[in-house]
Fold this protein.
Amino acid sequence: MPVKTLVAALTFAAAAIAAENQVTFHKDVEPILQKHCQTCHRPGQAAPMSFLTYREARPWAKAMKTAVALRKMPPWFADPQAGHFLNDRSLKAAEIETIAKWADGGAAEGNSKEAPAAVAWPEGWQIQPDIIVPGPTFNVPAGNKNNVVEWVSVTVPSGFTKDTWITSVQIKPEYPAVTHHMCLGFNPHTPDVKYFDPVWQNKARDEEGAAIPGKGPTFGPASPGGRFRSMAEDCYLPGNPAADYRIFDAAKLVPAGSDITLNLHYTPNGAPVTDHVQIGFTVAKEPPRRRYVSMIGSSPQDPEHFAIPPNEGNWQSPPVEVTFNQDVELVFMMPHMHVRGKDMTYTLVYPDGKKEVVLNVPHYDFNWQLGYNTSLKVPKGTKLRVDAHFDNSVNNKFNPNPNRTVYYGEMTWEEMMNPFFGVVVEGDVDPNKILAPRGSVPNGA
Ligand code: HEC
């Protein structure tokens, strides 16, 4: 074969191989977007742009590459080195590489015959609720795109006239497109509560007064009552399924007459809307064999132990430490801090002294209240220790004022160090006895 022909043949073959190996939208990228992105990136959902079609996704190719390489997207903040999560939606290294190659190689469309079948996305209720409780109505302003309205909390009556075992909860906003997330907690009714009255978290964003923290329990079942109302037992998060205790074969008790406090976080998208929130529940007819209990931990709250100095970039909070008084299954963890929260780590210390980090969130992001589902058998006598750091320096772009000491409090300009978690216990257990009485950790009470 003449050299020229040989070269031509080789070039042709190489081109054919290149075409076959070329990363294309339909063959390689679309399946990843379906699995990890479209749950939020489709019309009417939380993300500002849709990735349902090539035409919609193509302009975002470079931004996608950056966002996935930095692990900004999909939102998932657990260090992959620690723990195992049932709802893990993070990308595998190979998937990140695929998106990067696609973006770098010209973001080709490829052959639409190679596209995966479109996903049938659920609309409306994901659970078939036995009870629907009317939630708040909220006027979301037009705002600017990506402009977050400050958190607001609203308390509504549950309407539960008797003790109720709930097996799943779905918070359903009418306009997911402007809903960043919503969380709820159950609280005993107190006479001072004003139903349907929004309490703005930013009423005095620049107020310099330090809150005098309530005493309150620093660890225990959710719903401690009083000023410190629990607001994050269950959440609506874009792209996440409803909180469903049936996957743990369990149910949660909501005492008769409880109030429901919702924490609403909206992201205006240019058009004003009036959102009507509904809360749906499935309920168990019988008391369950396995009981789901939501718990909240807190670091000491008094100013002597909890005071973040000005311009301190890595302040270590006193830890949360607690001992399980009986066997439990640890099924849920959700770090909660405010804008200065930097990292949080949950560690189990087993009775034999073995330590296991079960969740590490090295770059906490206040804007994403993510919960991590797991399934860990925790024997009686095991200790849960939670550590956290706060960044009160100028390097923290969410920090409204690095020049002041920050104390414990519910407002966004104050700080909280709250590891939430959920456990499942067998049989008829008093939730107040799941944890051993507090040990040596100062609680300021
Ligand atoms: C849980 C919902 C959710 C999921 C899942 C999700 N996104 Fe997003 N994404 C958002 C929201 C909300 C925004 C806009 C606000 C922001 O940037 O946080 C966004 C913004 C983006 C941006 C713009 C970032 C920037 O810097 O401006 C890109 C690119 C992106 N997402 C890509 C992806 C890709 C790729 C995936 C899947 C691998 C994905 N997202 C999964 C909710 C989501």
Remarks:
- The chain has five helices and 22 strands.
- The chain has two domains: 3-114, 131-433.
- The two ends are 91 Å apart (CA to CA).
